[in-house]
Amino acid sequence: MSEELLSFEPATGDELWRGAVSDVDQEVEIARRAWPEWAAKAVTFRSETLRRFADRVKAEADTLADLIARETGKPLWEARTEVESVANKVDISVKAYAERTPNRRIEGAMGLRSAVRHKPHGALAVLGPYNFPAHLPNGHIVPALLAGNSVLFKPSEKTPATGAKLVELFHSAGVPHEVLRLVIGGSDAGKALAGHPGLDGLLFTGSARTGVALSRQFAGQPGKILALEMGGNNPIVVWDTADIATAAILVVQSAFLSAGQRCSNARRLIVKDSLADRLLDEVKALANRLIVDHPHADPAPYMGPVIDNEAADGLTESFLILMSNGGQVIRHMTRPVAGRPFLTPGIIDVTAMPERPDIELFGPLLQVIRVDSFEAAIAEANNTSFGLSAALIGGTPQLYDQFWANARAGVINWNRPTNGASSAAPFGGIGLSGNHRPSAFYAADYCAYPVASAESDAMRASIGVGLRDPEGSRLVTKNYL
């Protein structure tokens, strides 16, 4: 009897889905055999196939949104926005492919020309996360398929049902079954896929721990592409502003959207000391009003549960550790539903802590740091090994210029949440947040490689120096062509 993987709804604990664990060797072999034929198709053929996929997503938007909400626990309204992002990704990727990987020809003298074209890598693995189980892997899959690669997609073991539905929609749109393969399994399957010699590269979104392990694994394989997006310990800085109410809204959106389970969520609120008490009163009051409930509740919740009880237990333990090491509680993190992974927003002032942990606390937990100067605020913002997103709330254009120039992050916003990023722009970070291969609009860069060519319709060649004449007595030293 084959091994099975099961998925459960975080909000209820009910079984949602089950499926057989994949044979990784077999899946890689199928994808490798299939990719040359797919790569040989015209890019217009591939783009039209993917546009049909977008149409299929729109046609089944309600079904897909309901599945995402049930499997992740996120509110239904948020799951619907994820589905919209999945459908919109196709047109964005087609535009990005044309802009980032264009064909170029440079005409020269005597019929000579230079050309630049792009080729797919081959068989690429995509490892997807659980927080956006459709949108984030789709952000790798679509540009990879568009460029002519075959794809082996392993969804998170916590959200396999959404992954299976996503692949079903691709196949129903005409993407060959052999070109896009679904790999079901846990961490063992992920390790087997990442280490498979038949892969030409891996596209990953997930934790820094796993990303660092993959970086080490791929370090001795320069011929394979590796794109990493690994989250962040993101700062939101609030400075001189009279509009405390709006600043508080931006802080709450940054910290608690998606129950804090976005890689771009704010983890650290760095605030001017003279503003701190007023701002924190507003933030706490607003956090108190946030509805935490199951995805389909009425009225609609702002937050659902985190992904599972293991994650909820780890976050509550982290909150207690911060308390026991000098953190001052502003708002307690609680478990409102016994036995289920619902968490209320937790806010804690860690200014007095002698050492603050530089980790990504992936949930609704916000740490507060008070500072006296803007230079100190920037220093605190950069006091991390991560570097995904950062935001400045308030201040002047000159202060924002200073912040932008000195903050170390791949996404830097002003008077916008840390988690507000456009798919029409690159998305990625530095340090433990990524390996300088941003996704979103720049995903085209890591899905194909440039090939430079020197070309001529007719052969022309000569050797103008270093040859003996036909008699064998003299060197030819002229005719430098």
TrEMBL record:
The keyword Ribosomal protein does not apply. GO terms for biological process: L-arginine catabolic process. One of its GO terms (molecular function) is succinylglutamate-semialdehyde dehydrogenase activity. Pfam families: Aldedh. Keywords: Arginine metabolism, NAD, Oxidoreductase. CDD domains: ALDH_SGSD_AstD (cd07095). This is Succinylglutamate-semialdehyde dehydrogenase. Gene3D superfamilies: Aldehyde Dehydrogenase, Chain A, domain 1, Aldehyde Dehydrogenase, Chain A, domain 2. Residues 7-444 form the Aldehyde dehydrogenase domain. InterPro entries: Ald_DH/histidinol_DH, Ald_DH_C, Ald_DH_CS_CYS, Ald_DH_CS_GLU, Ald_DH_N, Aldehyde_DH_dom, SuccinylGlu_semiald_DH_AstD. SUPFAM superfamilies: ALDH-like. Belongs to the aldehyde dehydrogenase family. The active site is at residue 229.
